[in-house]
Amino acid sequence: MVYTVLPKKMLIINILDILKRYSDAEHRLSQKDIIDILEREYSMKADRKAVKRNLMNLIEFGYDIEYSETIRQNKKGEEETIYSDWYLVRDFSDAELRLLIDGLLFSKHIPYNQCKELIEKLKGLSNTYFEAKVRHIRNMPENLPMNKQLFYTIEVLDDAINEGRQVSFTYNEYGTDKKLHPRQNSEGKVREYLVNPYQIVATNGRYYLICNYDKYDDVSNYRLDLITNIRLLKTRSKLMKKVVGLGKGLDLPKHMAEHIYMFAGANVPVKFRANNHLAGQILDWFGRDVKFLNDNGETVDVRVDVNEQAMIFWVLQYGEYVEVLEPQKLREKVANTVVKISNKYAKVREDE
């Protein structure tokens, strides 16, 4: 085998690369292991002293490298220290990286190719042994309709929020052709949204913008993956204290609990009765500010402040086990919705 002579300054870089690719707490390397890999993959020869010296230099430079020391007697009967079990301590454990990767896989808004690129970058933070643990990436769907402007939209909104500036954008919805179509005004022209952005949040597998539609004085929520053609404007954003519901600033946990499906519109105080086994689901959806009342061991009354339309959706989701008690107007809306659903299925039974 013919070896390419590499500059000695490359030795320390190659040793660091070996630690990144082949070591962790479960895969520790001896100096001989490092020497063998240097020769096999980098066409570079080095002795133990050179390897140890460069490892110690890396530690001195601030790299978090662990190793073990053992004392033994050499052939001359003298005590000497043996250094072994070298490995690089990583910023993220494999479990943490898997959690981040699964978060990307479960997301509903990141385009497939961008998601795949991000996962490859995360995999690069571990070593060669990590590859086998994330093969489930192949199960990702490739044919979902996606908005490729999403990351750019996030960047612009980050700047707008940090600088306190307005943005304008086109807001879209998917058609049966699986493509985004811009919302139009009464004249049939593409509608421009002028908003004052305050916060980006992630919920239900998607990103949302909490903001104020400049024409009105209440809070609005927009899905980021439905936004296109965003522009950062020079005009200053409306102060939060001028927006109904944000007079004391944005209480994010409260806002999220009251907007469980991120619908816009007013919140209402709601009282409903639910089977006790739903207690965990109720806490998951509405947070720990809910009030449980009249627990009889089978059912419990619950008080929450929540967006009215979102509450209708939630009740339908758990309909068999939930009954809206107050307000009467909401109770009637739920009842009417249930009747409409029942009539649809009754018609199906008649047709059969």
Describe the protein's architecture and organization.
The chain is an alpha+beta fold and 352 residues long. The chain folds into four domains: 10-88, Winged helix-like DNA-binding domain superfamily/Winged helix DNA-binding domain (Arc Repressor Mutant, subunit A, Orthogonal Bundle), CATH 1.10.10; 94-139; 150-250, no CATH class; 267-351, Alpha-Beta Plaits. The chain is 36% helix and 26% strand. It has ten helices and twelve strands. The strands form three sheets. Strands 3, 4, 5, 6, 7 and 8 form a six-stranded antiparallel beta sheet that branches. A four-stranded antiparallel beta sheet has the order 10-11-9-12. A two-stranded antiparallel ribbon has the order 1-2. A hairpin with a 2-residue loop joins strand 5 (192-203) and strand 6. The longest helix is centred in the last third of the chain and has 24 residues, at 328-351. The N and C termini lie far apart (80 Å). 19% of the residues are buried.
Count the domains: 4
Spans of 5+ residues with little confidence (pLDDT < 50)? 1-5
Please give the count of helices. 10
Strand segment tally: 12
Oligomer: single chain
Ends: how far apart? 80 Å
Beta-strand fraction estimate: 25-35%
Average pLDDT confidence is: 85
What is the structural class?
A: alpha+beta
- Portion of residues in helices? 25-40%
The sequence of SSEs as H and E is HHHEEHHHEEEEEEHEHEEHEH
Largest sheet: 6 strands, antiparallel
Computed CA radius of gyration, to the nearest angstrom:
30 Å
Q: How does the overall form come out from the CA principal axes?
A: elongated
